[in-house]
Specification:
This protein is an all-alpha fold and 447 residues long. The chain has one domain: Na+/H+ antiporter like fold (Up-down Bundle). It is 74% helix and 0% strand. The protein has 18 helices and no strands. Helix 6 runs antiparallel to helix 17 and helix 15 crosses helix 18.
């Protein structure tokens, strides 16, 4: 597809979504299901506007999916306002650690013994498919700063943190595949353990959090001192923190995804400190009037009470970045899920059905129920969490990354077919069930 044709296709889709938004909200399906269907329409089964498989586009798809995940992780971290030691975080740590490791290992056994995959390929597919996607799981994540629901907090924290667990296993799988049938050398395993886990995980989290928190405090101070509420400056700050946290983490051998999530978390905690741990800023809890760039009455907006200026500046900063980041996240989601739908015909694999059912209905729910205690999440909440682990854009990035790192043609073909098929099934099944289940959960939660 030419660039002009891409613009025509995406422009048509966005126009349809804009004109029918009032009706789409009434549908019991997520918008990602509609994007997937639109991708099928423009693919070989429909208009035949798309005629390439994943192998031809994995180079630029890796970076596009990477950008989408980075934006989503940063915004996800920005929504989490509670201190890291709060009880609401406990389930998130377990989901992103023991539960994810158990899911990867369990799905690896299914891939090897049920589908006949080599151990390395089975581990690669499992590591790619096991993490909850930070982009497509937004419907069940924390939606506002004052939201302290433990289920939503657990999934939000998991989506932000699980890259630090999944990515090392992707690297280990690539190491096993490169070794072939031979066992990896002890030196290689130790190097993987120390560099990809013991160093990369804490270094990424610490670097991102310090960068986000320090920058946030400085920016809030400057905004309050100069009564500055220019919207684009806050948008630039978001892009700067995403870029700097990721680049600096990669430069020191840490996980950039973790650093970007932690940068959003640190920026949010800078706002919390400015607000003296009070309730969420008014700009996020209500419907603030739109502010235009270069607003002339900025001093009136801040008011005469200079002691309240930092809190006002922090609230405006959060509202602007969340609005801007949410827009970027939705645009990239439309593009990538539509692209997945167009690719699906080339990569559909019926073996994905038992693999997906094992992941969605057996392995992940069992790990959630077994490894999270009753006082952290009640059984009913754990069953919901076990089902809500949607797969999506993050898996596309991991897969593209693996394809661009010297996989054999056979391994690349099998991994591509299984991953894309399972991701499509996840979008379909979770897209059809999430809203009804959320309505059920909200009724039970209120009662």
């Amino acid at each position: 597809m030419s660039f002009s044709l891409w613009l025509l296709v995406l422009g048509t889709l966005l126009l349809i979504l804009a004109l029918t938004s009032a009706y789409l909200r009434l549908l019991p399906v997520s918008s990602s299901v509609l994007y997937l269907a639109f991708g099928l329409v423009i693919g070989p089964l429909g208009l035949e506007l798309w005629q390439q498989d994943l192998g031809h586009i994995s180079g630029w798809l890796e970076h596009l999916a990477e950008a989408a995940v980075l934006v989503s992780l940063f915004i996800g971290g920005l929504k989490l306002r509670l201190p890291l030691r709060s009880p609401e975080w406990h389930a998130a740590w377990l989901l992103a650690g023991p539960v994810l490791v158990g899911t990867i290992l369990g799905l690896t056994l299914v891939g090897h013994f049920a589908l006949g995959l080599d151990w390395g390929l089975a581990l690669l597919v499992s590591a790619i498919l096991s993490p909850t996607d930070p982009v497509l799981a937004s419907l069940v994540q924390v939606s506002r700063a004052g939201d302290v629901d433990r289920l939503r907090y657990a999934i939000s924290g998991e989506a932000g943190l699980n890259d630090g667990t999944a990515f090392p296993f992707v690297m280990l799988a690539l190491l096993l595949i490169a070794q072939g049938q031979a066992l990896p050398q002890l030196d290689d395993v130790l190097r993987w353990l120390f560099s990809d886990i013991l160093w990369a995980v804490p270094a990424g989290l610490l670097l991102g959090y310090v960068l986000g928190r320090g920058t946030g405090r400085l920016v809030i101070y400057l905004r309050a001192r100069h009564t500055d509420t220019v919207v684009t400056a806050n948008d630039f700050l978001a892009l700067a923190l995403i870029a700097l946290s990721y680049a600096c983490a990669e430069a020191i051998g840490a996980w950039g995804f973790l650093a970007t999530f932690a940068a959003g978390l640190g920026l949010r905690h800078a706002e919390v400190e400015t607000s003296s741990h009070t309730e969420a800023p008014a700009e996020e809890s209500g419907n603030p009037e739109p502010r235009e760039e270069g607003q002339a009455n900025a001093l009136v907006e801040f008011g005469a009470d200079t002691e309240a200026h930092p809190q006002i500046a922090a609230g405006a900063l959060m509202a602007d970045i969340l609005s801007f980041g949410g827009l970027l996240e939705r645009i990239l989601e439309v593009l990538l899920v539509t692209l997945l739908g167009a690719l699906l015909v080339y990569h559909w694999d019926w073996r994905a059905l038992p693999l997906a059912l094992a992941l969605f209905c057996l392995v992940r729910p069992a790990m959630v129920v077994l490894l999270i205690r009753e006082h952290q999440l009640p059984l009913g909440h754990r069953l919901f969490v076990g089902w809500f682990g949607i797969r999506g854009i993050g898996s596309l990035y991991y897969l593209s990354y693996a394809l661009n790192h010297d996989l054999s043609p056979l391994a690349a073909s099998e991994a591509s077919d299984l991953v894309l098929s399972v991701v499509a099934l996840s979008i379909l099944l979770h897209g059809l069930s999430t809203q009804p289940l959320l309505d059920c959960y909200e009724r039970l939660y209120r009662r």
